[in-house]
Amino acid sequence: METSPDLLSLPDDALLAVLAFLPARTLFACRVACRRLRDLCLHRHLWRSVCVESLGVLRAATAALIPCIGRLKVPLRPAAFLLADIACVVRALELTVRIGGDAILAHSLIRRLSAVGGVTELVLLIKCRRPNALQPLLSAAFEMRGLLTLDVTNNSRRPLPSDWCEADGVPSLTRLRYDSPSADPFLELLLRTHAATLQHVELHRLEDVPASLLAQALQLRSLKCLPCEGLWRLVALPGLAHIDLP
């Protein structure tokens, strides 16, 4: 009589493909089943695509075992303390900044993860209405090396400043999404700094689109923004293939 194949009879590559469908909490639960699952459930290839949204996964006792995290989007204050002494590579980081204290913690967390390296995507939802409190955070985000994607939503009802910037940044961004009611100084700083590398730009809610700065992004391939008079400046961009005007 034939028996159905056991899950553990699969080769490592196939078993990793199955484990990739499990959430982070379940991966930790599977570790105790056997020695093989213990090793595979902590495989670096697996955790590169894992999204951690639960603080339970980041308990100090278990977070030290995680080789890397694909995406981290948990409440800022507990995450900052839990990751204080952990050298864990995080590929994508999502932070919500509501008050000045959040900005300080976000600044510290970004600096720490930048020192470890590996962060290629940063998402900032800003609700704090104290521009001075945001300066260290914006500076840390601006100085991140190797960052490829930056997503900023400014719901603070105040323009984000850039007068803290004293040195030129290193261009690296290929994708920028900026959601703000106006083209504030921080957006203009980002467009100037990353003009040589930007390929995809989305500008939401902006009626005063900085077309003159976008015209300097010679690698630009796609643009999404509101219609404005200055878009004719972009006609000369050699690689621009798509403009979405909602």
TrEMBL record:
Write down the Pfam families for this protein, in alphabetical order: F-box-like
Supply the InterPro entries for this chain.
F-box-like_dom_sf, F-box_dom
Provide the F-box domain boundaries.
4-50
What is this protein's record name? Uncharacterized protein LOC117651718 isoform X1
Native species: Thrips palmi
Gene that produces this protein: LOC117651718
